[in-house]
Design goal:
62 residues; 0% strand; globular
Length: 62
């Protein structure tokens, strides 16, 4: 049986993604706009897009 990890609440994931984007030099408004834009481009929610950003940084793609 595989172990399933608990997914953090969407607000936590968005907050983490915002911190990641801020570390890349984006301000808060620009980071949020980037998340919204990426989500629209991919046809997913902002929370899902944020989760993808966090997963990419953690090395857990998929």
């Amino acid at each position: 049986m595989s172990v399933r990890t608990v997914t953090p609440p969407a607000t936590d994931v968005v907050g983490l993604a915002m911190k990641i984007l801020a570390a890349q030099g984006l301000g808060r408004t620009a980071a949020h706009a980037a998340l919204v834009s990426m989500a629209k481009d991919r046809g997913v929610t902002v929370a899902r897009c944020a989760a993808l950003v966090v997963a990419a940084v953690d090395g857990r793609m998929g």
